[in-house]
Amino acid sequence: MKAARFAAVLALALVGCHAESPAPRAEPAPPPPGELWLTMQEIADGDIEVAPLDTRDVEDTIVTSGTVSLDDLRTGHVFSPVTGRVVRILAGLGQHVAKGAPLAVIESPDVGSAVSDVHKAEAEMLAAEHDLRRKKAIFEQQAGSAADVEAASDRYRRAKAELERAKRKQELLRVGGAGVTQEYTLRSPVEGEVLLRNINPGVEVQGQYSGGANAELYTVGQLDTVWVLGDLYEMDMARVRVGTPATVKVVAYPGKVFQGQVDWVGGSLDGSTRTAKIRCTFANAEKLLRPMMYATVELAVDRERALAIPRSALLRVGKDKVVFVQSGEAEGRVRFTRITVDADDGASSPWLVAKGAELTPGQKVVVKGTLLLSQMLGEERR
Question: How many CB atoms lie within 10 A of CB 324?
């Protein structure tokens, strides 16, 4: 009887043990080739980010070097036409001057000579005119010869020509008046800001017309609009034209981008560098761009509207160019599929035109973590 009872208890215990043991879990189905199935935690740990595809204006960019320059049609380079000594400075650096405003005064014997030459020529012409009249009157009374009249006429013409020469020189130096003066006033040829002053009181300057070496004394220009001159390689000439958008960056302002456009493309190449000059115009209201600054010039060319991917989404795997797209969910995990695309990754634009049958607008493409996914896929395939 006791033995029967013990057997019954043992049987119940064995039944209870079998009831409490868990059933074996079913293994999840493996992803098909070219796919990865990741949990949300794995995505977060891998710092994987996605972004939707969209149709965009995509453009290639030509990058070249350039130098900031003044607009030469709005810039005046002032030299002294006379040799002399600077006696007064009338315009300082940074000062805004009007066209024709006085910049400096130079004391020069050339000025006195120019004024006195006019007075002397006027007197000689008047004397030659009187002599000619007398010779004509004598000749008409048959008391003189025709040769005397011709000689007097020749002297009159020479005197008249000398007076014209003296007046032209006086006008060139922009001096005049009844009295003889030794002072010459340098004046600004344009309205603008004094950008360079290369003289001081007491300095001797050489005149432009004296035959010696002369230095630039003042530079007056306007900085509200500047030029950037750059070099364009022969292979890129067909892609750049007047009106092409241009941006400039300079070392002085690393976070600043200046917007402008190409307004001239050189018609010939430099024989040594095989490059053509281009000129871009930039508004410079804040006067941040200064002459002779080195600049990085980017020219936006070959614009088209197409389905585009960020450059960070493209990955090279051997000879193939691939992207990873988020293609739904499976077994409670997010599916990522590798797709081979056709894209020109040699372009410098941040957006690349991607051609692939499986890419559609709105589709989510991996923009961060593509290399990690490729490595994981390679490990899975091994």
Answer: 26
Name the token pair of 133: 């009249």
DSSP string spanning 345-368?
A: TTS-SSEEEEE-TT--TT-EEEEE
Q: How far apart are CA 287 and CA 153, in angstroms?
A: 63
Q: Render pLDDT for 284-333 as a digit per residue (tens, 0 to 9).
A: 999 999 999 999 998 888 666 777 778 788 888 888 888 888 888 877 78
Residue 230: is it exposed, middle or buried by C-beta count within 10 angstroms (0-12/13-18/19+)?
Answer: buried
Q: Name the burial class of residue 245, with classes exposed (0-12), middle (13-18) and buried (19+) by CB atoms within 10 angstroms of its CB.
A: middle
Does residue 214 sit in the same domain as residue 226?
no
Reading the block at residue 232, the tokens are 């364009």
Cβ neighbour number for residue 124 with a 10 Å cutoff: 18
pLDDT tens-digit readout, 82-135: 888 999 999 999 999 999 999 999 988 877 777 777 778 888 888 888 888 888
Count CB atoms within 10 A of the CB of residue 212: 9
Q: Where are the alpha helices (DSSP H) in 60-174?
A: 109-140, 146-173
CA angle 208-213-215, nearest 5°? 75
Domain housing 277: 62-72+222-303
Q: Give the integer Cα–Cα distance in Å for 346 and 115.
A: 70
Q: Which two tokens stand for residue 87?
A: 């006696």
Q: CA 382, CA 377: separation in Å to the nearest integer? A: 9
Per-residue pLDDT band for 17 (boundaries 50, 70, 90) equals very low
Q: How far is CA 313 from CA 41, 289, 340, 371, in A?
A: 21, 35, 12, 10
Same domain, 298 and 362: no
| Residue 329 maps to a domain | yes
Tokens 């002072």: give the residue: 183
What distance lies between CA 270 and its chain's CA centroid? 20
pLDDT tens, 20-61?
Answer: 445 555 556 677 777 888 888 888 888 888 888 887 766 667
Contacts of 318 (CB under 8 A, 6+ apart): none
Query: What pLDDT, in 10s, does the model give residues 157-187?
Result: 888 888 788 777 766 666 655 555 678 888 9
263 touches 280 (CB < 8 A) = yes
Residue 81 inside a domain? The answer is yes
